[in-house]
Design goal:
This protein is an alpha+beta fold. It has a single domain (14-319), classed as Oxidoreductase, molybdopterin-binding domain (Sulfite Oxidase, Chain A, domain 2). The protein contains 11 helices and 13 strands. It has helices at residues 14-17, 26-32, 45-50, 52-63, 84-88, 103-106, 131-137, 164-171, 209-213, 265-269, 312-315; strands spanning 70-71, 116-121, 127-130, 141-148, 153-163, 179-184, 204-208, 218-223, 226-227, 237-239, 252-258, 293-296, 301-304. Strands 1, 4, 5, 8, 9, 10, 12 and 13 form an 8-stranded mixed beta sheet that branches. A hairpin with a 2-residue loop joins strand 8 (218-223) and strand 9. The longest helix has 12 residues, at 52-63. The protein is globular, with a radius of gyration of 18 Å. 41% of the residues are buried. The structure holds ligand MTE.
Length: 320
């Protein structure tokens, strides 16, 4: 699995990305740059049902790989769990397509084995780990989390994973380490949108070390009791439930500890729209839409957005 360094100077001029205010989602934003193919296709449960058998076939190999993970009752929410089929057919994975409802059809060539994840940078014990060894070695458990996309849709999902801090403690961060920088794979043969050189592939994200060490920050290897299907970011992705979904980077190959604040994919593309912190906040609208409420996918319900997505008790102290 090859990956390259992100070209640091690469940036779309701000005047190309901040002047439009008449559209609501990032597929339109990308299309406006001349980068997208399909327009936004809105999900409906009828749509998912009509494609039912193909989807069942796509999910079957992953559903059959169940993971033995005990439910952690400390992490549950009062909202209803999103239907698995709804979650599996409503994805943001720009490496494959800009159309959420068709990601699951575009991941056919995506090979998630063998897979290695490198942990490097300002650590005492850098290591490269095979994903299956990692899963065996880490304390995996099931946690039900709220998930809130910056596009104002939300879901509630049972993830299976382990706290990122368990991995970071193993590599022993040096005192100078202040941030964590993560990268997704780069392989345009598997992920056709990565052929588009105008986007700064591979996808990259970052957290402060304190955020990465927070108990809520989960490196996730499963969902709904089984391994992650590719559309959710197999074989390992991040979940940071108090931040907008774009922080939850999928299919991670590298975790690097650094003393410098890392740049992020969406911040590079549109700095005034997607900041590094990206904490869920109903009181701070996105420049092009309100964040006061969210649409629960698959239910037709709109609910008020909660500060820190409801996780303030665990994380508000990080921002004092
Ligand atoms: N990670 C990568 N590598 N590529 C992406 O396009 N999209 C992000 C995030 N992680 C994305 C990514 C966004 S915008 C969201 S909302 C979530 O993944 C969606 O996760 P889901 O498809 O599992 O719901």
């Amino acid at each position: 699995m090859a990956y390259i360094k992100v070209p640091k100077a690469w940036e779309i001029p701000e005047n190309q990305v901040t002047t439009e205010s008449d559209y609501i989602d990032r597929r339109k934003f990308i299309k406006n740059l001349g980068l997208g193919s399909a327009g936004a296709l809105l999900f409906s449960s009828t749509n998912a049902c009509a494609q039912g058998s193909a989807l069942e076939k796509q999910l079957e190999p992953f559903r059959s790989q169940t993971l033995d993970a005990k439910k952690n009752e400390n992490f549950t929410v009062e909202r209803q769990i999103t239907d698995e089929i709804v979650a599996a057919t409503y994805n943001n994975y720009y490496e494959f397509t800009t159309s959420k409802s068709t990601v699951w059809k575009r991941v056919e060539k995506f090979k998630t084995r063998p897979w290695e994840i490198e942990v490097s940078g300002l650590v005492e014990k850098p290591m490269t780990l095979d994903i299956d060894d990692l899963i065996k070695q880490m304390p995996i458990e099931e946690r039900i989390y709220r998930f809130r996309c910056v596009e104002a849709w939300a879901m509630v999902v049972p993830w299976i994973g382990f706290p990122m801090k368990a991995l970071l403690e193993r590599v022993q961060p040096k005192a100078e380490a202040k941030y964590v920088r993560m990268l997704t794979f780069l392989d345009p043969e598997m992920a056709p949108q990565q052929n588009d050189f105008r986007l700064p592939w591979p996808y990259y994200e970052g957290l402060t070390l304190a955020e990465a060490m927070n108990d809520l920050t989960l490196l996730t290897v499963g969902i709904y009791g089984h391994v992650l299907p590719p559309q959710h970011g197999a074989p390992i992705r991040l979940i940071v439930p108090w931040k907008y979904g774009f922080k939850s980077i999928k299919s991670v190959v590298s975790i690097e500890l650094t003393d410098k604040k890392p740049r992020t994919f969406w911040n590079t593309l549109a700095p005034r729209e997607y900041d590094f912190e990206a904490n869920v906040n109903p009181n701070v609208p996105h420049p092009r839409w309100s964040q006061a409420s969210e649409r629960m996918i698959g239910t037709g319900k709109r609910l008020p957005t909660l500060i820190y997505n409801g996780y303030g008790e665990a994380v508000a102290h990080l921002y004092k």
